[in-house]
Amino acid sequence: MTTTSPPSTRRLPRPAWLMLVPALGLLAAVLLVPLGQSLVRSLGAPDLTLDHYASLFTDGVTLTVLGRTASTAVIVTVVAFLLGYPYAYLMTRVGPRLRGILLVIVLIPFWTSVMARNYAWIVLLQRGGPVQSAFEFFGLGDVTFQGSVVGVTIAMSQVLLPFMVLPLYSSLGGIDRKLLLAARGLGSSPLVAFWKIYWPLSRGGVVSGLILVFTLSLGFYVTPALLGSPQQSLIAQLLAQRTTQLLDFAGAGALGVLVLVVTLTLVAWANRFGGTISAIGVTSTARSKEQS
Predict the structure, then answer these.
(1) pTM of the predicted model, to two decimals?
(2) Is residue 226 within 8 Å of residue 60, measured between CB atoms?
(3) CA dist list (Å): 54 to 69, 172, 255
(4) Which residues contact 220 (CB under 8 A, 6 or more apart)?
(5) Helix, strand, or coil here: 219?
(6) Around 242, how many Cα atoms within 13 Å sit in the side-chain half-sphere?
(7) C-alpha–C-alpha distance, residues 163 and 8, integer Å
(8) Angle at CA of residue 47, ends 46 and 48, nearest 5°
(9) What is the pLDDT of residue 279?
């Protein structure tokens, strides 16, 4: 009597997973491998020392640049939030046609070259430009923003504003306005209803927009390089100087790893307490869902 062997229970890999192989290979080649090389160089291989990281917090020039970059990123983030929140709120209140127009206005910067936008700011902010002429017309003195942190902050706020508006619009668009009507029906004032109901439900998008704009501001290069000056450089300019002029690859690697760690920490915190960050939207976490 012959017995048949049971069929194999081992599962074969699904063909759909094979579609990820090219993308993962490209990601590893252009991102993970360079990051690994920077990490190894920052540790002073083969001696493996942390001196390059310690020098980041003892060198006066580096500390000044780090502080200037952090303060600029905070200001840009605050300006983008103050401009983006009312704009995103307006997008949720208007009709479909006007909403489409407002959305196109937000998306126009993505369809325009970054270099073109920055050169437009150079024309506006340069000496003898329209901004300086306007200040002189109103008797506010000779003011030139090109080559200053103020000019860089203004241009960065405009360039990064869509990254604040889109997550906010995605979050605000999902809030049921009947909750506000119910609060008004129970005798709450509009301001109290907004602060007690609308604001907590929008915090996921707010946190995502804030972290997204802040982390992008930390490593922004084109705008500070074109509108700023070497005397008031930011982290990205310092990294470029160390790699192209000073050939200090170990120090540049340590500085780059520090920026990466700060960015990943902020993103992890936002994903835990605010929502999943996306360039075009936000997915609320369980805590946000419980609040709603």
Answers:
(1) 0.79
(2) no
(3) 19, 43, 10
(4) 156, 159, 160, 234, 236
(5) coil
(6) 22
(7) 51
(8) 95
(9) 42
